[in-house]
């Protein structure tokens, strides 16, 4: 008697027929658009739902810091999802490698009928998803993508003439009109957990197996108190107060639902809702003007500015050693916690571009490395706002005075004392690396020359 290994066609028959929900910036199981639509599709076509994630080496290999807090954050979020899935007899399927290898791996393991994702808007992700969609199509698997990361996306908020907005105030007015209760309806994913593909647990790769270690940075919880939202308008500009939500990183990775947060905002703080509109606004700019994500100034003539790009001064800025306590406090907060208060982000960014005349792209890249809540659209928007080169940006002649900003927003110096305790000690704290009035004058001259202003 001879034995033969199963014919490939027979092997396919024994594979589970599934739809894959490929998680990326949507690391949760509740109120999750792609998961919900996958469940409905699975129900209609008698399939099962398999959740999957890729620790993408194309991204991870670029991170120099092997304790990068964002990798720990993602790992923690996946661990929490895995615990929920195990409770349902299901499991996450997590792959460490390239996205192409992940696809091959899933193709071998399952009979994949369709792949469901939530849309991702950054240049790398757009390219990646376009290729994936094609590759899955060649394997007879359909591709479905949804809005989940933003409240209103792409062409949902256009001017009456059908053009994208480039100024925030009219954008936000239209945005509010369009933000109907229907837009904020939660996706009832829990109702369909019975459709999850049942299989033995698959282990998550450990951080160590991917060459990473756990961060020591404290990661903020995914919650916000209504009291904080109610006091937000009055207190949000004072960096010494715990008065902002710190939810940026949760919005970045989708560990909370933006719709749920918007509903909370509607009930408790119009000012907070406005900040969520800013977030959508910058997604909108990135979508309609993709050049901003490719290192170009939104206003092209700002690319003519002759930056000084002094490396020693850049280093002093990154290390919080400029001799301007409010700037140094911000940079030290960022380096230590992966967070910086919004008011201080504006001050340090303005200082880098205008006082030091260092290209805003250097600062943007530094923030991208360090911020837990790093998001290409908002980060680029914030930097171009500060440099004056962005849409609806601070005018070029507006140069924040760090001393006046301190008097306004950290009058009792609590924030500064916390991060720069030695700031009054001339032996331990550096003298200012530039004199405000001189730097301001130099900046105005350089900007005016580039922009041909008299
Ligand atoms: C130079 C610069 C760079 C920035 N880089 C980023 C970035 O990489 N990622 C990022 O999410 N935000 C960025 N911001 C915007 C803002 O500083 C942060 O969103 C905010 O400080 C995060 O803290 P929080 O979660 O406590 O915000 P909260 O004040 O509690 O606001 C709630 C949420 O609203 C959104 N939001 C608030 N302010 C803004 C804003 N001005 N623009 C866009 N969205 C906003 C964020 O998602 C935020 O989490 C940047 C701002 C500047 C000036």
Provide a descriptive summary of the structure in words.
This protein has 454 residues and is of the alpha/beta class. It folds into 3 domains: 15-149, HUPs (Rossmann fold, 3-Layer(aba) Sandwich), CATH 3.40.50.620; 151-184 and 225-288, Serine Threonine Protein Phosphatase 5, Tetratricopeptide repeat (Alpha Horseshoe), CATH 1.25.40; 294-446, DNA Cyclobutane Dipyrimidine Photolyase, subunit A, domain 3 (Orthogonal Bundle), CATH 1.10.579. The chain contains 19 helices and 5 strands. It has helices spanning 8-14, 33-44, 57-60, 69-86, 99-109, 123-138, 168-178, 226-235, 248-253, 258-268, 270-288, 311-319, 325-337, 342-355, 360-370, 376-387, 402-409, 414-419, 436-451; strands at 17-23, 48-56, 93-97, 111-118, 142-146. The chain has a 5-stranded parallel β-sheet, with helices on both faces. Helix 11 crosses helix 16 (376-387) and helix 13 packs across helix 14 (342-355). The N and C termini lie far apart (95 Å). Bound molecules: flavin-adenine dinucleotide. Flavin-adenine dinucleotide is lined by residues 236, 244-248, 251, 275-276, 278-279, 282, 342, 345-346, 349, 367, 371, 373-375, 378-379, 382-383, 386. Flavin-adenine dinucleotide (FAD) binds next to helix 9, helix 11, helix 14 and helix 16.
């Amino acid at each position: 008697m001879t034995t033969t290994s199963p014919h490939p066609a027979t092997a396919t028959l024994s594979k589970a027929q599934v739809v894959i929900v490929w998680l990326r910036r949507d690391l949760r199981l509740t109120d999750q658009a792609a998961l919900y639509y996958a469940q409905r599709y699975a129900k209609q076509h008698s399939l099962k739902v398999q959740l999957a994630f890729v620790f993408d080496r194309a991204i991870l290999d670029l991170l120099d810091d092997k304790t990068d807090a964002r990798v720990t954050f993602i790992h923690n979020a996946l661990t929490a999802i895995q615990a929920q899935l195990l409770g349902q007899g299901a499991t996450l399927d997590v792959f460490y490698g390239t996205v192409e290898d992940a696809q091959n791996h899933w193709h071998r393991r399952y009979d994949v009928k369709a792949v469901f994702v939530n849309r991702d808007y950054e240049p790398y992700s757009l390219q990646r998803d376009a290729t994936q969609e094609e590759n899955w199509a060649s394997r007879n698997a359909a591709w479905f993508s949804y809005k989940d990361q933003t409240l209103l996306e792409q062409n949902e908020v256009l001017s009456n003439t059908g053009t994208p907005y480039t100024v925030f105030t009219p954008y936000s007015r239209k945005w509010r009109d369009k933000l109907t209760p229907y837009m904020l309806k939660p996706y009832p994913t829990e109702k369909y957990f019975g459709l999850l593909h049942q299989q033995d647990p698959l282990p998550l790769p450990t951080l160590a197996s991917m060459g990473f270690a756990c961060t020591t940075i404290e990661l903020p919880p995914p919650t916000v108190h209504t009291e904080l939202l109610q006091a937000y308008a009055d207190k949000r500009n004072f960096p010494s107060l715990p008065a902002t939500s710190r939810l940026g990183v949760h919005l970045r990775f989708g560990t909370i639902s933006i719709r749920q947060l918007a509903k909370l905002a509607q009930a408790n703080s119009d000012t907070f809702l406005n900040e969520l509109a800013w977030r959508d606004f910058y997604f909108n700019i990135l979508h309609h003007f993709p050049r901003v994500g490719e290192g170009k100034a939104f206003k092209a003539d700002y690319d003519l500015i002759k930056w000084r790009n002094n490396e020693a001064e850049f280093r002093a800025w990154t290390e919080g050693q400029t001799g301007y306590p409010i700037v140094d406090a911000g940079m030290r907060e960022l380096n230590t916690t992966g967070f910086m208060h919004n008011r201080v982000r504006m001050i340090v960014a303005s200082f880098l571009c205008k006082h030091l005349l260092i290209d805003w792209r250097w600062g943007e890249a530094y923030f991208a490395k360090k911020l837990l809540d790093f998001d290409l659209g908002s980060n680029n928007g914030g930097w171009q706002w500060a440099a004056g080169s962005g849409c609806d940006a601070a005018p070029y002649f507006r140069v924040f005075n760090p001393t006046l900003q301190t008097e306004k927003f950290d009058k009792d110096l609590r924030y500064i004392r916390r991060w720069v305790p030695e700031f009054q000690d001339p032996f331990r704290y550096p003298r200012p690396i530039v004199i405000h009035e001189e730097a301001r004058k130099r900046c105005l001259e350089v900007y005016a020359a580039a922009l041909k202003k008299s």
